[in-house]
Amino acid sequence: MSKEKTQRALKDNEAKAVARMLRVSPQKLNLLAQLIRGKKVDRALADLQFSRKRIAFDVKKTLESAIANAENNHSLDVDDLVVAEAHVGKALVMKRFSARARGRSGRIEKPFSHLTIVLREVAAAAEA
C-alpha cells in the first residue's frame, strides 16, 4: 500500500548534479557554465582545473558529482559523457549596508546562485 515510485525526470542516458547556494553572482557563474557546456567531461574538467576564477573549484566539484552519479547510480560509461546542460539560477540576495559620506549609507548586495549540470551519454561512433 505504499505510494508509487515517481517517474525519473531525466532520460535513461542522462545524469545530473545540482549545487545550491553558491556565493557568487549568477552572471559570473554563467561564464563558467558557458565554458563547459557541450564539451566532453574530461575536457571540461581540464578547463575548470586551469581556470583562474574563484568559483571554478565549486563548478568542478559539481561536475565530478554528476560524473559519479552517472557512473554509480545510472551505470553510464564515463568516457562517453558530454555536458548536455549547465544552467544557472538565481537564489537569495543578502542585503548589507555600508557607511558613506555625510551620514548616508550605501546598499551592498551579495547574491547567491544555483548550478545544475546534466550529463548525457553519447555513442562513441557519433563522436568520431
From TrEMBL:
Name of the gene: rplV
Any single GO CC term annotated in Swiss-Prot or TrEMBL for this entry: cytosolic large ribosomal subunit
Domain of life where this protein originates: Bacteria
Tagged with keyword Protein transport: no
Annotated function: The globular domain of the protein is located near the polypeptide exit tunnel on the outside of the subunit, while an extended beta-hairpin is found that lines the wall of the exit tunnel in the center of the 70S ribosome. This protein binds specifically to 23S rRNA; its binding is stimulated by other ribosomal proteins, e.g., L4, L17, and L20. It is important during the early stages of 50S assembly. It makes multiple contacts with different domains of the 23S rRNA in the assembled 50S subunit and ribosome.
InterPro entries: Ribosomal_uL22, Ribosomal_uL22_bac/chlpt-type, Ribosomal_uL22_bac/org-type, Ribosomal_uL22_CS, Ribosomal_uL22_sf
Protein name: Large ribosomal subunit protein uL22
Subunit structure of this chain's protein: Part of the 50S ribosomal subunit.
Alphabetically ordered keywords of this record: Ribonucleoprotein, Ribosomal protein, RNA-binding, rRNA-binding
Pfam family for this entry, one: Ribosomal_L22
Gene Ontology MF terms: rRNA binding; structural constituent of ribosome
Family membership noted in the UniProt record: Belongs to the universal ribosomal protein uL22 family.
The organism of origin for this protein: Methylocella tundrae
Alphabetical GO biological process terms: translation
